[in-house]
Write a structure and sequence with these properties.
Layout: H1 8-16, H2 23-26, H3 47-51, E1 64-68, H4 75-85, E2 89-94, H5 100-117, E3 121-126, H6 133-137, H7 140-144, E4 149-154, H8 158-161, H9 164-168, E5 170-174, H10 180-192, H11 205-215, H12 219-235, H13 243-250, H14 262-276, H15 280-292, H16 297-312, H17 318-333, H18 338-351, H19 357-370, H20 432-446
């Protein structure tokens, strides 16, 4: 039998003995209308609808489809639904275990099925980003000649992980993490549906909330945990999946954390204040609580970027680079791997020297502007790149800094009302000690008031 081929006999066995299949498999949608989430892909007339022959446009022109999205968002499900809707054979391979030999075997089988039985084949290739360039090249003849309808799934950016010839011949569809509301509907359906638990147990609100937290937008994870919890409850003769039974079954304590309530802000605040206070262990604790509660990793990354400028700033200018890199990495990889990246950034920020001068400097400048303390731009700094500027005296007398020794020209830059104003008051913490010395020398060369003595003690 071909690798993971859903034959008629296999489908018949599953229908006769549904308990032999996991809950996530039993609850797999049979039509596009049963798919949870991904509404942006399921609108009437969408490419996915046309792929299965719905709408006036007929089947979509692309013979290959690439599904890009986080785990558990329905990539395998959509491939299976397409095969069912188009009445095609469905073959599933994983790039983790399969190679060129297995791919060629499936393609040859598809050619025989098409020639002998007139039956087309859908080849679902999971984790395609794990295939090398040569392995992906082996798919091109089948795609170009339409010997199979290839539906490939990836959790990584296809523009980096999939070869250009295959990408250009494919319809790229991006899947999004499932919302809590979508997952909640899926859990209710699984509890009540005869294909699922058939009403054998009840799911109270606290257990449901815990399932949503640990799912993290992953439908497969939610259904797997529900099945484990229901099995534990029924084994004890209980008709309700209690929070305790669920915790015991999935071996994960419920985190007292409401992403939409006060604790969402309390825990986020505690994370930032622990970083500000340089308590790396407390910061990691609050980070772990946010991760375990299913917090959006992008929200955490945004808070870290803010902290890098607000609380560290010039004491370690590289902190912002670390936070921004972490945010970019999180957007590309998602959970669970993003936990390592967020930990990396949290530790670096917590242990970095601290300075809030970037915050206080812009705060003081904004306060003056809002109070009306501004004044006209000095004439020699105004734009002189237009006809008539010279007659107005604009840009006249401007000294080009690169033409003088040290590249610092002693001329007025601030408006008259702000001459001698000092917004930036550097500390002598971390790298900012060097900037404190620099700004003192620069201000002395520019002229004006003697700068205020920098805050802080000896450089650290």
């Amino acid at each position: 039998m071909e690798p993971d081929l859903f034959t008629a006999a296999e489908e018949d066995r599953r229908e006769k003995d549904p308990a032999s299949s996991p809950l996530a498999v039993r609850m797999r949608p049979r039509t596009l209308d049963e798919v949870v989430g991904q509404q942006h892909l399921l609108r009437p007339g969408s490419p996915l609808r046309r792929l299965v022959g719905e709408g006036n446009g007929g089947p979509a022109g692309a013979s290959s489809v690439i599904l890009w999205g986080p785990p558990g968002t329905g990539k395998t499900t959509l491939a299976y639904v397409v095969s069912q809707a188009t009445n095609k054979r469905f073959v599933e391979l994983s790039a983790i275990t399969a190679g060129v030999k297995e791919v060629r075997a499936v393609i040859e089988g598809a050619r025989r099925a098409a020639g002998g039985y007139g039956k087309d084949t859908v080849l679902f290739l999971d984790e395609i980003h794990r295939f090398s360039k040569a392995q992906q090249d082996s798919l091109l003849p089948a795609v170009e000649n339409r010997w199979v309808t290839l539906i490939a799934a990836t959790t990584e950016n296809p523009y980096f992980s999939i070869i250009s010839p295959l990408l250009s011949r494919s319809l790229l569809l991006t899947l999004e993490p499932l919302t809590d509301e979508g997952l909640r509907g899926l859990l209710h359906r699984a509890v009540a549906d005869e294909r699922g638990l058939g009403g054998a147990v009840r799911l109270p609100e606290d257990a449901e909330a815990h399932l949503l937290r640990i799912a993290g937008g992953d439908a497969r994870r939610a259904l797997t945990a529900l099945e484990a919890g229901a099995g534990a409850a029924l084994a004890k003769g209980e008709e309700e999946v209690t929070l305790q039974s669920l915790e015991e079954a999935v071996d994960r304590a419920a985190v007292k954390y409401d992403r939409d309530g006060d604790q969402h802000y309390d825990v986020a605040s505690a994370l930032i204040k622990s970083i500000r206070g340089s308590d790396v262990d407390a910061a990691l604790h609050y980070l772990a609580r946010m991760i375990e509660a299913g917090e959006d990793p992008r929200f955490i990354a945004r808070r870290l970027m803010i902290s890098a400028s607000e609380d560290i700033g010039m004491a370690d200018p590289h902190a912002l680079q670390i936070a921004v890199a972490a945010a970019q990495a999180v957007a590309m990889i998602g959970f669970p791997e993003a936990a390592h990246t967020l930990s990396h950034a949290t530790i670096a920020l917590a242990l970095a020297p601290k300075s809030n001068t970037a915050t206080t400097a812009i705060g003081a400048a904004l306060a003056d502007v809002r109070a009306g303390l501004a004044g006209p731009v000095p004439p020699h700094l105004r734009d002189g790149h237009y006809k008539g500027a010279e007659k107005l005296g604009h840009a006249q007398g401007y000294v080009y800094p690169h033409d003088v020794p040290g590249a610092i020209a002693a001329q007025q830059y601030a408006p008259d009302a702000l001459r001698g104003k000092r917004y930036y008051q550097p500390t002598r913490y971390g790298a900012e000690a060097r900037y404190a010395d620099v700004v003192e020398r620069v201000r002395a060369r520019l002229g004006g008031d003697v700068p205020t003595e920098p805050r802080g003690g000896t450089p650290s």
